[in-house]
Write a structure and sequence with these properties.
By secondary structure, the protein is mostly helical. Among the domains are: about 40-65 and about 85-185 and about 195-225 and about 255-310, no CATH class; about 480-530 and about 545-690, no CATH class. The protein is about 65% helix and about 0% strand. It contains 31 helices and five strands. The chain has helices at about 30-40, 45-65, 85-90, 90-120, 125-150, 155-180, 190-220, 245-250, 250-280, 285-310, 315-340, 345-360, 370-395, 415-420, 420-445, 450-455, 455-475, 480-505, 530, 560-585, 610-615, 615-640, 640-650, 655-670, 675-710, 730-755, 775, 780-805, 830-850, 855-860, 865-905; strands spanning about 230-235, 235-240, 510, 545-550, 560. The protein is globular. The two termini are about 45 Å apart. The relative contact order is 0.12. It holds the Pfam family PGG. This is PGG domain-containing protein. One of its GO terms (cellular component) is membrane. Keywords: Membrane, Transmembrane, Transmembrane helix. It comes from Triticum aestivum (Wheat).
Length: about 900
C-alpha cells in the first residue's frame, strides 16, 4: 500500500495529526474526553500563534498606553512628568481597569505558550488548565479593550452590546464542556479522516481570525489622529480632555464610523475563534457554517470600512481609497478570462516548465518531496513575512521621533535622528531598508524549490537577520558603547549555546523504530480513507532507520528526528514573534522621545523621555528588551542550522535560550509599562507567578513522563509513523493556500496600522489637529504613500476573499461544458493580487520612510544587489553540485568498466 506523505512545511501542521479510523480488524472506542483533548492538541500551533500575537499586542499597548503621554512638564517640577501616561491622571479608574486587564492577558498568554510547548496528546489535566487560562486570557483582552476605548457614552453602549454575545457564548461553551462526561455514553465516534481534512480548513480560518483580532485591538486602543495632549477650554466651556481622541472633536462622524467598524471586526474575530475551537466545522449548510463564514465576512468588511474611515480626512480621498477595492477584482476578472480562453496552452507550458525544473534539480522529482526542503520553506516563509512587517513599520516610524516645527534649520515631519545623529540614522535607515527589501524578495521567491534546494533563500535570510541586528543597534541607542553591548549580547548567547552543546550534547545515532504489530499497519492520517477500508491487513514493511539523539536505555529518552523537528518549529515560531515584538519596542521605547532641546533641564531632542525622568526604569527596560531580542535572533540562527539545532534541543540549550528571552521580555514589560509602585507590584506579581509556574510544569512533566515510562509495555503497541513520498496535487495546493493566506493577513495587518498612523506624524494643536503633517508639507509624497499603501491593503483583502472558497471545498467549474468540469479553481489570480500587494508595499515604503527623492530612489535600487546576490549564490551552488556530480560519475565509470570486463572474462 502506498501512503501519501504529510506536508511538513504547513505553518500549522507540524504536530502529529489524528490517526485514521481503525481498520476492520481493529476495534476502537474513543471517549469524549480524549477527543476533546485531542482537539486542542491538533490545533496546538494555531493556539500558539494566537497567544503569542496576543502577547505581542498587549506588550506594545502596555508600554504605550491609550490616551498618549504628557509631552511637556512644568518648570517648577509640579504636575505630571513628560512621558507619563495621560490616562492615569485623567481617568484613574479606567487606567487601573485597562492596566490590570492588559497585564493579565499578557501573563495568561505567556502561561499558555509554556503549556502548549509541553502539551501532549493524552493530557486531560493539562487541557483543563489550558482552557481555564485561555478563558482568562480572552476576558482580559476584552476588558482592556473596553477600558481603553470607551471614551464616551456611545462607545460604552456599543462595546457592551457587542461584548454580551461573546460572554454568553463563552459561558455556554464552558458549561457544555463541563457536562461532556455526562454525555459519554451517547457519543458516536466521528470519522477522524474527515476530521483531518476538516483541520486543514480550520487552520486557514484560524490564521485569518487571529490577525484580525490583533490588528483591530491595537487600532482601537490607538485610533487614527492621535490624542489631545492638553485639556481644551473655550469661553469657559470644556471642549475636550487630555487623552481624548482628536478625531472625536474634529470629525465626529468619521471617528464613530471607524470605531463601529473596528470594534465590530474585533468582536466578530473573537467569535470566529470561539466557533472554530468549540466544535467541528461542517461543510453542510448549517447554523454553525453560516455563523463562521458570516462572521468572516463581517470582520473583513469591518476592517475595510475602518481603514477607509480612519486613513483619510477628506471625502474625496475616502472615495478614492474605496474605489481601489474595485481595481483588484477587475484585474482578477481579466486573469480568469484569460485562464478560460487560454487554459490548455498555459497548463501545458507550466507543466513543461515544471518538468524542466525537476530535471535540473538533483534527484529529479524526488527532490521536491524532501522533508528538509519543506521545513526550510516553512522557516523562510514565516521569518521573511514577519521581517517585512517590522521593517516596514520601523521605516515609517523611525527611532527618535519626528520634528514638530521648522526651527533651527530642521523641517517639520523629518526624522529627528537624521539631524542630531546623521551617521547613526544612515546606518539604521539603510540596514532596515536592506532587510525590508531582502525580505520582500524572499517572500516572492519562497515558492521556488530551485532556490530552496540550494539554501539560497536561507542564506539571504541570515543576511536579513544581520541587517536587523545592525539596525537595532543603531536605532535603539545614541552612543557607541551601548551599541557594542547590544551586539555583544548576541555573540554571548551564541557562544553559550555552542559551549553547552559541546559539553552537554550527545551525538546523533541512527536507530530503527519499532515495527508495527504483525498484520497491521501504523495509522497515517494522510492515507486516503478508501485504503483504510481494505478487508485484509496490509503486511508490514521493514522498519526504516530514523535519526535519534542520545543513547541510554528506555524509549522515553530517545527522540526521533520527527519529534525534534516538531520542537524546532514551535521554538522557531516563538523566537520569530519575540524578535518582531522586541525590535519594535526597542526602537520606540515607552514614554516617547523629546521633541526639542531644553538647555534648562538638559533634555535633548530624539532621546527617550524615560531615560531622563526614570533612568533606572529605562536601563532595566532597555537591557531586558535588548537581551530578549538578541536571544531570539540567536535562537533563530541556531534553529536554521541543521548540525546545531538537534543537539541543542536534546541538551535543552535552546530551551534555556527561550526561557531567558521570555524572562527578559517580562522584565522589560514590568520596567517600561508602569511609573508607579502599585502597578509595578502587580506586574512583578504576575512575573513571579509565571516564573513559579515554569518549575512546577517541568516537575509535573518529568513526573508524568517517568510514570508512563514505568507503566508502559511493548505488547504490540502500534506507533504512528509518517511516510515521506511525493505530494499529491491537493496536498501541494493546501500547502500553497496556507502560504498565501499567511502572506495576505500579514501584509493586511501592517498596511492597516500604517494607514491609520501615516508617516510624518500628526498635528497636535489648532484646527488641523489629528491631520497628517505630511499631507500639508509634501502633498505629492503623501498621496503616493496613501494610494500605494491602500492598494496593498485592498489587494491583501481581495486575496483573502479569493482564498476563502478553498476552505469550503475544492470548487469546480460547474457552469462549463462537461469536458471542462475537471478544472479546479485556479490559484494564480491570487498570485496576481499578491504581486500588486508587494509592489504597493515597496512603493509605500519608499515614499513614507524618507523625505528626499534621492533616498527613495536608493530604496528601490537596493533590489538590484539583493537579486544579484541571490542569482550569484544560486549559480555558484549549482556549478559546485554539477562539478561534484561529474567527478562522482567519472570515478564510478572505471569501476563499472572493470566489472564488465571481469564478467566477460
Amino acid at each position: 500500500m502506498q501512503c501519501k506523505d504529510l506536508p511538513a512545511s504547513k505553518i500549522m501542521q507540524h504536530i502529529p495529526s489524528p490517526p485514521r479510523p481503525p481498520q476492520a480488524n481493529q476495534m476502537a472506542t474513543p471517549n469524549i474526553d480524549s477527543i476533546s483533548d485531542t482537539k486542542l492538541y491538533e490545533l496546538k500551533e494555531q493556539l500558539l500563534l494566537l497567544t503569542t500575537l496576543v502577547a505581542t499586542v498587549t506588550y506594545v499597548t502596555g508600554l504605550n498606553l491609550p490616551g498618549g503621554a504628557w509631552q511637556m512638564q512644568q518648570a517648577d517640577g509640579h504636575g505630571p512628568l513628560a512621558g507619563d501616561p495621560i490616562l492615569r491622571d485623567i481617568h484613574y479608574r479606567r487606567y487601573l481597569a485597562f492596566y490590570y486587564c492588559n497585564g493579565t492577558a499578557l501573563a495568561s498568554s505567556v502561561v499558555v505558550c509554556l503549556i502548549l510547548v509541553m502539551l501532549r496528546r493524552d493530557s486531560p489535566a493539562w487541557s483543563v488548565v489550558l482552557r481555564v487560562v485561555m478563558v482568562l486570557d480572552l476576558l482580559g483582552l476584552m476588558g482592556s479593550y473596553a477600558a481603553g476605548t470607551c471614551h464616551d457614552t456611545f462607545a460604552t453602549i456599543w462595546v457592551v452590546a457587542l461584548a454580551f454575545p461573546v460572554l454568553a457564548y463563552i459561558t455556554y461553551a464552558f458549561v457544555c464542556y463541563l457536562c461532556l462526561p455526562l454525555r459519554r455514553d451517547n457519543h458516536t465516534p466521528r470519522n477522524t479522516n474527515t476530521g483531518y481534512q476538516e483541520k486543514e480548513k480550520i487552520e486557514v480560518l484560524m490564521l485569518l481570525a487571529t490577525f484580525a483580532v490583533t490588528i483591530s485591538y491595537a487600532a482601537g486602543l490607538n485610533p487614527p489622529g492621535g490624542f489631545w495632549t492638553s485639556t481644551g477650554h473655550k469661553d469657559g466651556r470644556l471642549l475636550h480632555l487630555a487623552g481624548d481622541p482628536i478625531m472625536e472633536d474634529s470629525a465626529l462622524r468619521r471617528y464613530r464610523a471607524f470605531f463601529v467598524c473596528n470594534t465590530t471586526a474585533f468582536v466578530a474575530s473573537l467569535l470566529i475563534i470561539l466557533l472554530l475551537l468549540d466544535k467541528n466545522l461542517s461543510r453542510t449548510i448549517s447554523a454553525r457554517f453560516v455563523a463562521v463564514y458570516g462572521f468572516i465576512g463581517v470582520a473583513l468588511l469591518g476592517l475595510m470600512g475602518a481603514y477607509a474611515a480612519g486613513s483619510c480626512r477628506e471625502t474625496d480621498n475616502t472615495i478614492k481609497v474605496l474605489s481601489l477595492a474595485a481595481g483588484v477584482p477587475i484585474c482578477v476578472i481579466l486573469q480568469l478570462a484569460l485562464n478560460y480562453v487560454f487554459y490548455w496552452p498555459i497548463k501545458n507550458m507550466c507543466d513543461s516548465f515544471t518538468r524542466w525544473l525537476q530535471n535540473l534539480s538533483p534527484g529529479g522529482a524526488s527532490a521536491l518531496a524532501d522533508p528538509d526542503l519543506k521545513n526550510t520553506r516553512f522557516f523562510v516563509m514565516v521569518l521573511a513575512s514577519f521581517a517585512v512587517s517590522i521593517t516596514y513599520q520601523a521605516g515609517l516610524d523611525p527611532p527618535g521621533g519626528l520634528w514638530k516645527d521648522d526651527l533651527n534649520g530642521h523641517k517639520i515631519g523629518h526624522p529627528v535622528l537624521r539631524t542630531t545623529h546623521p551617521a547613526r540614522y544612515q546606518v539604521f535607515f539603510y540596514s532596515n531598508s536592506a532587510a525590508f527589501v531582502t525580505s520582500l524578495v524572499v517572500v516572492m521567491m519562497v515558492q521556488s524549490k530551485f532556490l530552496l534546494k540550494r539554501r539560497t533563500l536561507v542564506a539571504a535570510m541570515v543576511l536579513d537577520l544581520i541587517g536587523l541586528v545592525i539596525a537595532y543597534a543603531a536605532g535603539s541607542t545614541r552612543d557607541a558603547s551601548t551599541s557594542i553591548y547590544v551586539v555583544a549580547v548576541a555573540c554571548l548567547v551564541l557562544s553559550y549555546v555552542v559551549v553547552h552543546i559541546a559539553l552537554g550534547g550527545e551525538k546523533e545515532n541512527v536507530a530503527a523504530e519499532p515495527a508495527p504489530a504483525a498484520g497491521t499497519v501504523a495509522p497515517d492520517p494522510a492515507t486516503p480513507a478508501a485504503t483504510s477500508a481494505s478487508p485484509a491487513a496490509t503486511p508490514t514493511a521493514p522498519a526504516s532507520p530514523v535519526v535519534v539523539l542520545g543513547g541510554g536505555g528506555g524509549g522515553g529518552g530517545r527522540r526521533s528526528k520527527e519529534q525534534l523537528d516538531d520542537k524546532r518549529q514551535v521554538l522557531l515560531l516563538i523566537a520569530i514573534l519575540a524578535a518582531a515584538l522586541t525590535y519594535q519596542a526597542g526602537l520606540t521605547p515607552p514614554g516617547g522621545f523629546w521633541q526639542k532641546d531644553d538647555e534648562v533641564h538638559g533634555h535633548r531632542a530624539g532621546y527617550p523621555v524615560l531615560l531622563d525622568n526614570y533612568p533606572r526604569r529605562y536601563k532595566a527596560f532597555f537591557y531586558c528588551n535588548a537581551a530578549s531580542f538578541m536571544a531570539s535572533v540567536a535562537l533563530i540562527l541556531l534553529l536554521v542550522n541543521r548540525k546545531l539545532y538537534r543537539p541543542g534541543i536534546r541538551c535543552y540549550a535552546l530551551h534555556v535560550c527561550m526561557a531567558v528571552g521570555m524572562f527578559a521580555l517580562m522584565g522589560a514589560y514590568a520596567a517600561g509599562s508602569s511609573r508607579h509602585l502599585k502597578t509595578s507590584i502587580y506586574v512583578l506579581t504576575l512575573v513571579i507567578a509565571v516564573s513559579a509556574s515554569i518549575p512546577l510544569q517541568v516537575a509535573m512533566f518529568w513526573y508524568i513522563r517517568n510514570y508512563r515510562r514505568n507503566h508502559q509495555h511493548d505488547e504490540g503497541r502500534i506507533r504512528r509513523r509518517r511516510t515521506r513520498g511525493l505530494d499529491s496535487p491537493d496536498q501541494e495546493k493546501d500547502e500553497e493556500l496556507e502560504y498565501l493566506m499567511l502572506l495576505g493577513v500579514l501584509v493586511a495587518s501592517v498596511t492597516y496600522q500604517s494607514g491609520l498612523r501615516p508617516p510624518g506624524g500628526l498635528w497636535e494643536e489648532g484646527n488641523a489637529a489629528g491631520n497628517p503633517i505630511l499631507h500639508d508639507v509634501n502633498k505629492r509624497r503623501y498621496d503616493i504613500f496613501l494610494y500605494s499603501n491602500s492598494t496593498s491593503f485592498m489587494a491583501s483583502g481581495m486575496a483573502i476573499v479569493m482564498l476563502l472558497p478553498f476552505t469550503l471545498s475544492n470548487l469546480e467549474w460547474r457552469f462549463l461544458p462537461s469536458q471542462r468540469r475537471n478544472r479546479k479553481w485556479p490559484l494564480w489570480p491570487v498570485h496576481t493580487a499578491i504581486l500588486l500587494d508587494m509592489l504597493g508595499l515597496l512603493v509605500a515604503y519608499a515614499a513614507g520612510s524618507t523625505r528626499t527623492w534621492k533616498s527613495s530612489r536608493n530604496v528601490i535600487f537596493i533590489l538590484l544587489p539583493v537579486l544579484a546576490y541571490i542569482a550569484l549564490y544560486a549559480a555558484i551552488v549549482a556549478i559546485y553540485i554539477y562539478i561534484c556530480n561529474k567527478n562522482r560519475t567519472s570515478s564510478q565509470l572505471p569501476t563499472t568498466q572493470a566489472d564488465q570486463q571481469t564478467t566477460n572474462a
